[in-house]
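FIELD: query
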Amino acid sequence: MKTYFRLLLVLTLSVVFAQCKKETVTTERIDSQNTIRHAKGFSIQNYDGYTVVTVKNPWPKAIKTYTYILKQKNGIVPDSLKQNPIISVPIKSIVVTSTTHIPSLEMLKKEKTLVGFPNLDYISSEKVRVRIEAGKVKELGMNQNLNTEVLLNLQPDVIIGYGIDNNNPTLDNLQKSGLKVLLNGDWNEETPLGKAEWIKFFGALYGQQKKAEQIFSKIEKEYLKTIRIAQSAKETPTILAGDMFEDRWYLPKGNSWGSLLLKEAKGQYLWAETTGTGSLSLSFETVLVKAKNADIWITSGQFSSLREMTAANPHYSQFKAFQNKTVYSFSGRKGKTGGIVYYELAPNRPDIVLKDIVAILHPELLKSYKPYFFEKLQ
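FIELD: result
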């Protein structure tokens, strides 16, 4: 009988210790430090043999959180995480679906891993265009209707998609076909540095987190340095943004990353007090009343000259900025097939964008600097 009770005691203690050990592992997993500083839409947590990437806000007002497990060679993923997509890293082939993803691959020197993209003409990167012309990057059609047959033939290690809302039937079908799909929400970040930090998302996929951190830290350092330079400006020019499209004037809302860039360049954006991200949609008359005497006009990029602007809408000439020829556009720098470089590179390099804007608003502070994206329209 004593032997029975001893055995029962040993078994009980074994269960207790096993539970304690299991709880300890769970605690360590939860407490692992997130390596992301500015971006709000994702986090990266590293563990022994695997990394947890959590995408929290892939589109506005998203409710669901997406968790991806990046498994290193010989890494062991806990049972509690195995219900999530598991991707073996470092990856060797990738499909991305936004031109804003391309610069991260290029900065990490991984552009050669790109095997497919929807609407290749949008890509401006010179290095990627060489690969496209050599037939090494396949055309995938349109984002809303990706060519499933081509993707199944390519069998990329991962497909980086994005969503406008919760309705993503194409991406859902690709997942059901066995392909690994990860959502990227860089476009939904509200701050310039938050957008740029998504290079770490790609760094984790390639097993190059340290390199991604180094690249981002340089961007962050230059961005903050330029803010300090702008703070010394004596004037705060008033700024009008955007222009007409289909009878409505579209311009950034006050909490958008574009508005924040203008503020940090020490400019007075005339709609900075509005709330929300994305774009305002206003009538021409409303804009004219408020911004007729604005010092600087930064257009949407659809025009390459002042003549093009008045050809589209002769009333543009009523603005003081137009009359004084202080209208700026980022449409001049284009890729080989007509893609505007700004749309591809600017979200990844806010340090360059901010420096450009400071040079426009306060040329006395950056006398020897020539803007990279922006040019004054003639």
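FIELD: remark
The radius of gyration is 25 Å.
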